[in-house]
C-alpha cells in the first residue's frame, strides 16, 4: 500500500498526522517515520531557509519505482508506505520530506525506510536552493541523475 | 521544430521565465539540443563556465516524462525538461 505526493507549500502543509493515519494497521507491529528538516548550517554557512524545486511527474514516478523495487527486493508482506516531499520555500526546522513505513517487524521497517530515502537521494529530481545570512542564495551542486536504464 | 525547454533547479538561472525556446532542425537529437543550449549560454552569459558545466552534467526528460539518452531523436514540436544534478530529501 503506497501513498505519494508533492506538497506545494504555498497551497498546503506537509503533515505527519496524515502519514500516521495512512500507515496505521493492526497487521503491522512496527512503524518508522523519517522526517527531513531544514537545518541552520551547511558548509560553514548560516542557512536561513531552503527553496525546493521539483519535476513533479518524474518525482512521483521515481517514488513509485523505488517502492516497487523495494517490494521486489525485500518481499515483505503487509507493508504500508507514505512518501511526501515539499516544493517551495521552507524555513529553519520546517519539514521537507516524510517517509512513513509500517511493516510486521521492526527490522523490516528500518530496512525498507532506509532503502527509500537512500534511493530518493540518488535519483529523485528535486533541487535545493539554500538561502544564507549575509550572502547570496545558491543552488546546491547535487549529484548527476542516475539513469536506471543504463544500470539494467 | 520548436522546443520548449522547461527549466529546473540551477538551470532556472538561465531565464527569468521558467522555460527557454529553441528552433531545431528536423530529427535533431538531445545532443543537438544540448549544443544549442551551450551556444545560448555563450551568447547570453559570456560562456559562463558554471552554466556550461551544469548543461553538460544534465539529463533531459521527454514530454512523456522519460529520461532520454543523448542519441534520442526529437521528431516533433515538444516540451523537453532539463534535469540538472539532483539533491532533494
Note the run of SSEs of chain A as H and E.
EHEEEHEEHEEH
**Treating each run of at least 4 consecutive H or I residues as one helix, how many helices of chain A?**
4
Query: So what's the CATH class of chain A?
Result: Alpha Beta
- Stretches of chain A where pLDDT is under 50 for at least 5 consecutive residues are none
Mean pLDDT of chain A: 93
Q: What is the approximate shape of chain A?
A: globular
Hey, which two chains have the biggest interface?
A-B, 32 and 20 residues
Tell me the CATH topology of chain B. Ubiquitin-like (UB roll)
Per the principal axes of the C-alpha atoms, what is the gross shape of chain B?
Answer: globular
Q: Label the structural class of chain A.
A: alpha+beta
Order of helices and strands of chain B: EEEHHEEEE
Largest sheet of chain A: 8 strands, mixed
Number of domains of chain B: 1
Strand order within the widest beta sheet of chain B: 2-1-7-4-5
Query: Gap between N and C termini of chain B, in Å?
Result: 37 Å
Q: If helices are DSSP runs of H or I spanning 4 or more residues, what is the number of helices of chain B?
A: 2
In the CATH scheme, the class of chain B would be Alpha Beta
Q: Residue-averaged pLDDT of chain B, rounded?
A: 94
The share of residues in helices of chain A is 25-40%
Main beta sheet of chain B: 5 strands, mixed
Amino acid at each position: 500500500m503506497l501513498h505519494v505526493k508533492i506538497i506545494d507549500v504555498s497551497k498546503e502543509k506537509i503533515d505527519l498526522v496524515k502519514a500516521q493515519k495512512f500507515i496505521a494497521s493492526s497487521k503491522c507491529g512496527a512503524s518508522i517515520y523519517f522526517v527531513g528538516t531544514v537545518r541552520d548550517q551547511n558548509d560553514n554557512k548560516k542557512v536561513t531557509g531552503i527553496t525546493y524545486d521539483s519535476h513533479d511527474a518524474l518525482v512521483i514516478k521515481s517514488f513509485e519505482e523505488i517502492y516497487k523495487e523495494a517490494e521486489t527486493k525485500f518481499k515483505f508482506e503487509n507493508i504500508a508506505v507514505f512518501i511526501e516531499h515539499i516544493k517551495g520555500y521552507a524555513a529553519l526546522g520546517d519539514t521537507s520530506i516524510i517517509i512513513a513505513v509500517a511493516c510486521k517487524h521492526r527490522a523490516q521497517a528500518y530496512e525498507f525506510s532506509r532503502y527509500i530515502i537512500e534511493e530518493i537521494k540518488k535519483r529523485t529530481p528535486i533541487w535545493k536552493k539554500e538561502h544564507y545570512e549575509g550572502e547570496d542564495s545558491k543552488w546546491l551542486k547535487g549529484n548527476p541523475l542516475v539513469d536506471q536504464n543504463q544500470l539494467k | 521544430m520548436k522546443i520548449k525547454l522547461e527549466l529546473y533547479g540551477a538551470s532556472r538561472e538561465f531565464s527569468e521565465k521558467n522555460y527557454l525556446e529553441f528552433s531545431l532542425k528536423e530529427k535533431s537529437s538531445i545532443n543537438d539540443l544540448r549544443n544549442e543550449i551551450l551556444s545560448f549560454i555563450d551568447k547570453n552569459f559570456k560562456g559562463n563556465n558554471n552554466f556550461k558545466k551544469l548543461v553538460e552534467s544534465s539529463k533531459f526528460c521527454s514530454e512523456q516524462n522519460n529520461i532520454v539518452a543523448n542519441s534520442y531523436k526529437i521528431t516533433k514540436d515538444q516540451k523537453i525538461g532539463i534535469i540538472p544534478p539532483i539533491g532533494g530529501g
